[in-house]
Amino acid sequence: MWRYIFHRLLLLIPTLIGILAVTFAIIQFVPGGPVEQMVQQLTQSGVGGETAGGGGTMLKHGRLSAEDMAALNALYGFDKPPLERFTDMVARFARFDLGESFFHHQTVFELVKEKMPVSMSLGLWTFFLTYLICIPLGIAKAVKDGSRFDTLTGVVVLVGYTIPPFVLGLVLLVLFGGGSFLAWFPQGGLVGDDFEQLSWTGKIKDYLWHMALPVTASVAGNLAVMTVLTKNVFLEEIRRQYVYTARAKGLPERQILLKHIFRNAMIPLITGFPAAFIGAFFTGSLLIETLFSLDGLGLLSYEAVMKRDYPVVMGTLYVFTLMGLLAKLLSDISYSWVDPRIHFGGK
C-alpha cells in the first residue's frame, strides 16, 4: 500500500505540469490579454492612465509609444519568452507562490483565502445535506422498490433534477425572498449588514437565514444522482445470493439489511466521500453566487477569465488540480480501507 501511495504521489508531478502546460499554451493564443486591455483602457481614458502596478504611462497623439508598450509588457511579464515564463511559474508554484493578480492588487493566495469562506459555506452545506438526504432516501426506495412511496419520491426527485439550480433559486427568491410574494428570507449576501453587532446566537441565525435559499437551490440538483445511485447499489446487493441464503436461515430483515447489505452497498458511496468532501471546500457556482450576491470562488474564476487575469487563472487551476488529484488518491485508498479484499500492488 505504501509503495502504491508513493508511486501515485510521484505521478502527481507530471500530471500537474501537463495540465498547467496545456492551459498555459492555450492562454498564449487567446486574444485580449492584459496588455491589450490596459492599452484599450488608456486609449479610452484620454491622455493618461495608471498601470496595474501603480506606475504611470502617458498617451502621445492617441497612442502609446514603443517605450511605453515595452514597459507594459515588462510589467505583466510578457517581455520574456513563453518557455521561460512557464518555467518561472512552475518554480514559483512549487514553493506555493501563486503570484499576484494583475487587476486586484492582491496575491492569488489572499484572493482565494478571501473568497473561500463563501464557496465553503455553499459547498459544505450542499455536500452534507445531499448525503444526509440521499442515502436514507435511496435505501428506503430500494427496500420499497415498486411501491407508491418509491414512485412518488422518484417523481419529486426527477422534478428537482430537471429544474436548473439557477431557475430554482430565482423561483425561491420570487416566492420567499421579497420578490412578488413573501419576504421570509434575505435576497442575498452571506450575512447581514449588522452581523458584527449581533450575539453569537444571533450571528448563527443570521448566517443560516442567509444560506437557506442558495443551499436549497444547490441541493435540489444533486438529489437525483445520489439518490438513484444509492437505490441501484442497494437493489443490486438485495438481489444477491447471500441475501437469499440469509433469509432462508431465518434472519430478520432488519439484521440482513444493517449487517450484510448495508456494509457491502456502502462501498461505492463511501469511496467517493473524500473527493466530494474536499471538492466541497472549492465549490464555486457562478450562477448561484451571482443570483444571491455571494462573492465566492465561482465569481472570482469567471472574472479572472474575462479579464485575462492569468495569475489568478493559473494559480487557482494549480490549487484545484492538486486538491482534486489528492482527493482521487484518497478515494482509491478508501477502497482498501472499506473492503480489505482490495489490494494495490500486492498479491
Textual characterization of the structure:
It is a single chain. With 347 residues, the chain is an all-alpha fold. It has two domains: 2-94, no CATH class; 110-338, MetI-like (MetI-like fold, Orthogonal Bundle), CATH 1.10.3720. It contains 15 helices and two strands. It has helices spanning 2-28, 34-45, 66-75, 82-94, 108-143, 148-162, 165-176, 200-238, 241-248, 253-265, 267-271, 273-281, 286-291, 297-306, 310-338, and strands at 48-50, 56-58. A two-stranded antiparallel sheet has the order 1-2. Strand 1 and strand 2 form a beta hairpin. Helix 6 (148-162) packs across helix 8 and helix 12 runs antiparallel to helix 15 (310-338). The longest helix is centred in the middle third of the chain and has 39 residues, at 200-238. The protein is globular. The termini are close together. Keywords: Cell membrane, Membrane, Transmembrane, Transmembrane helix, Transport. Its main location: membrane.
Structure described in brief:
The chain has 347 residues and is mostly helical. It has helices at 2-28, 34-45, 66-75, 82-94, 108-143, 148-162, 165-176, 200-238, 241-248, 253-265, 267-271, 273-281, 286-291, 297-306, 310-338; strands spanning 48-50, 56-58. It starts with a helix and ends in a 9-residue tail after the last helix.
Q: Main traits of this protein?
A:
single chain; 347 residues; globular; MetI-like fold; 15 helices; mainly alpha
